[in-house]
Amino acid sequence: MKKVLDIISVFSIAAMLFVGCKKDKPAPPPTPDGPKPTAGFTVARIDSVDFLSYQFTSTSTNYTDILWQFGDDSTSVEKAPKHRYAFDGLYHVVLTARNSQGYSAAREIILNVADPNFDRTKVGESYFATIGGTLTVSRDNGGGPTSNEGSLKVVDGDPNTKFFQSGFSGDLVMKFELKSAAVAGAYTMTSANDSPDRDPKSWVLQGSEDGIRWINLHSKNNEVFANRLQRIIYHFNNNVAYKFYRISIKANNGARDFQMAEWTVNKKQP
């Protein structure tokens, strides 16, 4: 038995000596960095009529893949993509170029997508007048909707009349149901003849296809009507034909009462 143990000990010592004498393999030389990527691009409108369509072309170098972010939740990995925006506006466009070693570069711009023929001082037809429908409010004038200062005065097309609500508490909702759905892209509000502290100051405009699910279309905070009987036009982006439009008045200029001469919802341009 002792002889067997001696043999095992000899082999163990020999194995240890072999391992101890074995040379480590040299580490592979580091891969040298390749050229760093650069990011660049050009952008141009595709034609003079369709102001929403653009040609983007990458001038990036030393990359293996690129990613375009067009600022409207759309992306592309093509070198020279064409992209069409749904609406005018300012868009944050970013191009990122990466190489196989994980290095990246980016270029970004603010792209102004604008209709050269759009006139912000003009507005199209009022759907309340041309299509017609029914106005309802969350709380009316004490005399009712047809009274001298009832809610129907705010949609009668006459800026010299007004809707007056006493005891305003920031919860007034005016809703108009059109006889048929229409795509609106603007609305107007006209201040009444007196008491600027009763003017609307903050509000939200919404649209709905069924009168149940509402989509925010536009909002204002701390708006000021500088003059009496002043009409202000507000434009917004929309391509859905809504049958219901409503405006929720959140605040006025501090009075305990509210008044407004006119409210319209409109086609965006004449």
Automatic annotation (TrEMBL):
InterPro entries: Galactose-bd-like_sf, Ig-like_fold, PKD/Chitinase_dom, PKD_dom, PKD_dom_sf. SUPFAM superfamilies: Galactose-binding domain-like, PKD domain. PROSITE patterns: PKD, PROKAR_LIPOPROTEIN. Residues 68-118 form the PKD domain. This is PKD repeat protein. It comes from Mucilaginibacter lappiensis.
